Amino acid sequence: MSRNIQVEKASVPPIEMQPLEIVERKGVGHPDTLLDAIVEETGRNLCRYYKREFGRIFHHNVDKGSLAGGRARVDFGGGEILEPIYICVVGRAATDVLDKGCKITRVPFGKIVLDSIQDVLRSTIRNLDPIKHVLMDYKIKAGSGDLTGVFEGEGKIPLANDTSFGVGYAPLSETERIVYKTEQLLNSAAFKRKHREVGEDIKVMGLRTDNEIKLTIAAAVVAKFTPDRDHYTGVISDVRNAVIDQAVKLTDRKVSLEVNTADRPKDGVFFLTVTGTSAEMGDDAGVGRGNRGNGLITPCRPMSLEATAGKNPVNHSGKLYNVLAQRAAERIIKEESRVAEAYVKILSRIGHPLDQPLIASAELVVADGASWNNVRDNVAAIVDAEVADVCSLQDLIIDGKISLF
Amino acid sequence: MSRNIQVEKASVPPIEMQPLEIVERKGVGHPDTLLDAIVEETGRNLCRYYKREFGRIFHHNVDKGSLAGGRARVDFGGGEILEPIYICVVGRAATDVLDKGCKITRVPFGKIVLDSIQDVLRSTIRNLDPIKHVLMDYKIKAGSGDLTGVFEGEGKIPLANDTSFGVGYAPLSETERIVYKTEQLLNSAAFKRKHREVGEDIKVMGLRTDNEIKLTIAAAVVAKFTPDRDHYTGVISDVRNAVIDQAVKLTDRKVSLEVNTADRPKDGVFFLTVTGTSAEMGDDAGVGRGNRGNGLITPCRPMSLEATAGKNPVNHSGKLYNVLAQRAAERIIKEESRVAEAYVKILSRIGHPLDQPLIASAELVVADGASWNNVRDNVAAIVDAEVADVCSLQDLIIDGKISLF
Amino acid sequence: MSRNIQVEKASVPPIEMQPLEIVERKGVGHPDTLLDAIVEETGRNLCRYYKREFGRIFHHNVDKGSLAGGRARVDFGGGEILEPIYICVVGRAATDVLDKGCKITRVPFGKIVLDSIQDVLRSTIRNLDPIKHVLMDYKIKAGSGDLTGVFEGEGKIPLANDTSFGVGYAPLSETERIVYKTEQLLNSAAFKRKHREVGEDIKVMGLRTDNEIKLTIAAAVVAKFTPDRDHYTGVISDVRNAVIDQAVKLTDRKVSLEVNTADRPKDGVFFLTVTGTSAEMGDDAGVGRGNRGNGLITPCRPMSLEATAGKNPVNHSGKLYNVLAQRAAERIIKEESRVAEAYVKILSRIGHPLDQPLIASAELVVADGASWNNVRDNVAAIVDAEVADVCSLQDLIIDGKISLF
Amino acid sequence: MSRNIQVEKASVPPIEMQPLEIVERKGVGHPDTLLDAIVEETGRNLCRYYKREFGRIFHHNVDKGSLAGGRARVDFGGGEILEPIYICVVGRAATDVLDKGCKITRVPFGKIVLDSIQDVLRSTIRNLDPIKHVLMDYKIKAGSGDLTGVFEGEGKIPLANDTSFGVGYAPLSETERIVYKTEQLLNSAAFKRKHREVGEDIKVMGLRTDNEIKLTIAAAVVAKFTPDRDHYTGVISDVRNAVIDQAVKLTDRKVSLEVNTADRPKDGVFFLTVTGTSAEMGDDAGVGRGNRGNGLITPCRPMSLEATAGKNPVNHSGKLYNVLAQRAAERIIKEESRVAEAYVKILSRIGHPLDQPLIASAELVVADGASWNNVRDNVAAIVDAEVADVCSLQDLIIDGKISLF
Predict the structure, then answer these.
(1) Is it true that domain C174-286 has CATH number 3.40.50.300?
(2) Chain B: residue whose CA lies nearest to A214
(3) CATH classification (class only), D31-141
(4) Which of A385, C130, D60, D215 is placed for a possible disulfide with C121 were both Cys, Cβ 3.0 to 4.6 Å?
(5) What is the DSSP string of A255-285?
(6) Residue numbers of C between 55 and 94 with CB closer than 8 Å to B
(7) Eight-class DSSP state of D366
(8) pLDDT number for residue D98
(9) DSSP letter at D160?
(10) Which whole number is the average pLDDT over B185-191?
């Protein structure tokens, strides 16, 4: 059955010619990103368990949850956590699997959640102790399906579990690259080695108006490595210099920078933390409230509201189509040199096979003089191939080869 | 101090001329919308309490939370809730207020949360009993501020609490109006009187490709009013007819419609519920995962990811600027007839007064022949006035005069 | 198989001749008693459900839990609940039942817990609103047994699930009767009609030294019916008079009385409540921490530490043997007039039929001149018959015909 | 003011001459004992914190809580925890301390609870990983007192916070010693070194009828050290031999022994565990449901129902009087050689100084020929001195020098 694929010239001008861009990235230690990472790790570990034990993946979606920030007392030189961070993973899963012989196997979903929380925290936030600083919880129930938890139409293309859409585009704009790489730089192992004072909770906001880029950075500082104000000021200065040094290599535009603007030195207010994340002190989080699949929040670009983290990679169109759209856009840019920018949007039909979306659309900014018919056919073929291959995303996601936030 | 206001011609063509639109609305009984309503009601009730008791609003943000769906057994003619829906409101608030005489007043935040949950559920879902079907919880801690909980710079324009942006646009497109009004129709008192079988959990997805609009509707059906399959089929047919009747009055485009596409009659699978919301059976929710401020999810339009629900209306730029942008766009359309479409974007500067955003931008689709300079100045004045008046939003929000989802 | 029954003369003198007695009763509105009532009601409702749906009772024990008191603001004339009372039922149950056709039935244990909490609160505390004043929760998991949840050896005498003992005695001493009836009086419908100010949280402590009885009563007073100190003083005076009036009819000993001794009028400290129970303000509770099966706490008498509330009435020796011992003691007194006092103790053997305890012992205070051999044989026969009939307790308990606290 | 002290000859015969004794000890790894240890450790750590930071102890009582058992899959040779053990500490404490300058200090009660849970588990159960196998929680609110949390009458003898009684006796009977030492032996470091298969969850029940003692032992076996049935049988045999070897040195009575009677080898049912405690698999617990202050449950002896664990050691008569009664009884036996057995009971008067109980009573079994008047006066003096010195218990308890379970 042929797919409903539509390829059009973009109705928007190239991104760099648009007068305004707003771009945000919440770093790996930001509470929203942390929670996304936790539920996605939980989902991946469930998949691995199901595959290992039963040879196939069972129903699950652990794409909700909340993080309620703790309370801390902090000052230059140190501090302590007064009340722990509360993290709760919410969702559903096949909690007990009934085999053909009417024998039940209990799925260790509780253990999987706890291990996932611990692993993410331990590998993400250097100065947070997941044992002493965190209360873990979960609310996971068996889903609405039958006890077997088998996806319908097994062996064939899974049916979309919802009416939902995915969007993706390529390439990143200059501002987007700068915002993304700024956070990557500050959270890199190399930077942390030199500047252990800088925590993982880093938020970068970029505003481009015509040819001017303003970056606003909030970077948690770890109190125990920061004995006093002078030291703090030095750290902020180091952050500033490193960011500027990198940014000027990425753009010819004018770049300005503000770091920890909310500090009020006169009142003794600084972005100091015990652990390196604001989750320690009342900064709460929800799943799906942070970065989109490309690691950015881009209100001036098409965006999906779907939380990709925690959803199952078998039949959840809200997850798969976002990944698919992003990859298709990137492949178009890579393989069709006459396309300068590509926007891909896909809309699922609940209850229909995932490779039969209601529509898959590509909007293209093409180079002057390009043969449109030819470009259009090439791009349509790429989109068609990507949609046809949607099931291959499953393993890539489980293996952690696709970044989702 | 003059504001950084920028008015430009839109780089996008008019929405009706764009080839593709995807528009979604999650109805008032959808779990995500329910949870947004609950946290916003909690926030408003906190504001009212603070004002009544202390004459001013104290720090709070209750914009996180989760809803873990229950378990139900349902069949034509009836059913029962096996495990209740779990609803947890997460956030922070001034829980104890210390006056100048060093006397503490305990804030009844627990009572406020419970009353808010109960009130929203009772007024939204006719067939849900908030006592028997719901487990309530909350995780609310005192914030990071001092115990007084007073906003900085009281009496003056509050300082933005974060670097965040708001976006808004006007007017709604035809497809957007149809999607919005479809849900409003199905959840109207008049419709419910005639069709009590239709629950409040209604999701409408609209896809426009050129001149064709496809609506996909998922509408929970209340089992106790639906004795058998024939009755169910009749209900679905009634929904279909009502929606089409309304849609054809709103557009000349071709409209097609699918209702409850995920039903599999052969397997006995229907969208039947005890209560009228899928929250009863494992459909979980998070705050800020549903409709944007205009009641829609519009991936082909600029969107903010900020959850507006539950945030304080005093200094939370993520809430106020979204409301502000939306209202400014509407006012531009109303007052400047030469503007066909307006997109407004505002970006805050953390720690700076709310009426001094980093930028407030309007992009306009103007009528041919309009005098651009004149339009620009008029619109700039409107945006300037709206930004200057940002504090007036506070009371409108508390009084429930502004719809947020 | 003959039972190991041992009948001896008591090694203690008659209770009224002992120099010291300490007797306590926690009234129906005391947090510990409330929680016992809630878990027992939950257990009974589970039994009824299992019997109704499946024709037999499945494994369960819901004999743990906690009640974390709320916070209230109270003053003469009224007050309000600031934070609700948190009640959590902890235990295990057959949550899903697998029939022979390998079909699963989901047990509505969540609903059963919630209904039980609501029912107990509503029928016990007149001025508490279980919707506005209480957070409900539960932690109930499937037990360690197989999924069927069937008790071993069905159709036969169930096997004791644990090594545990039960104790009982009869008759009550004079002091015990006075303590018991004091609470019954103050919580009677007749008394409440006249004195609506008196809450249900009433604790009575009795101390007898030789021929003097001192009663200490703590009685919650409902603030909204008590406008001022004078009124309060009048209420306390009414309590005092009613208790004394009744007590003098029950004893010739000297009785003295103290009510709400912890009040400190000078500091404005009174036992005032919004709801009539101290659970509203930080008085926490655990299951099995209150009255024993005869409604009393009697450190000068043999006591079992087993919580009877919430345990299953099928195979839990800790529950059944306490009930059995109490009933056997009462029957001995009733049927064998030569016995003045009877103490019965039974110890189970885990894994053995309930009618085959490791030992069932009766210690008797006999009238002078009684024929011991004859008494001994009669009593042994009574104990034997009661033990043989242990399974009949099941229905009596489920039907609420046996008081457990 | 002179104290109300009453010394009498015991109305009961010496314990060894009574025909029946039932004695139980729940070992350190039994869920009830674990939970008692956790709340007591929490209380002690709160005391230490208050003293260190503020120079005095503030109001608190953390004597409630629940432990909801997990789920495990276990077989000879190993197993895994499927769902963690849930542990919740419930109580109240001064959570924020307001000093004279109207400055608030936040008490790290959350951290204290978590550290206490972790420490107890780590030091008690060798094969339990408190990070992977446990969900921690707490429900601790500020108490009903004022914010300062200061105990009334500071600097003087504290006032009893409740009407409650304590009981104690000495010396232990032969059966009691055997039961106690049996558990101590099996949980000793020496025994564990040789028999690492034996878990910490050990329950010993002793029944003495005249001159025969029957011990029933339930001992969790750690699966990973127990490859098969033969090995298991060997472990049980080792337990049996060790217990008998010790018992015969402690008594001349006939001792018989049953270990893990609930095993049903035919059905493959053994007391195998992953961790060494039944808490891993649905065995729930409550505070105050286990051993009394002398480490035993003794229904044939006077017992208090008061949970001593978790209560504050400043003004909680339910805690202090149990400790006091036990110590007074032991001192009587030690210092007055003519007393063979001593039972001490103390009843508090709420709102009165702790050294002014309503009554302190000693009942004595005295040697034949002893001069009663002299004995009575000596014992009265001992009891008087102990009561007078009640405040000295505070530090002993905080320093962990008094065993409570």
Answers:
(1) no
(2) B358
(3) alpha beta
(4) C130
(5) EEEEE-TT-BGGGTB--EESSSSGGGGT--E
(6) 70-71, 73, 80-84
(7) E
(8) 82
(9) P
(10) 98
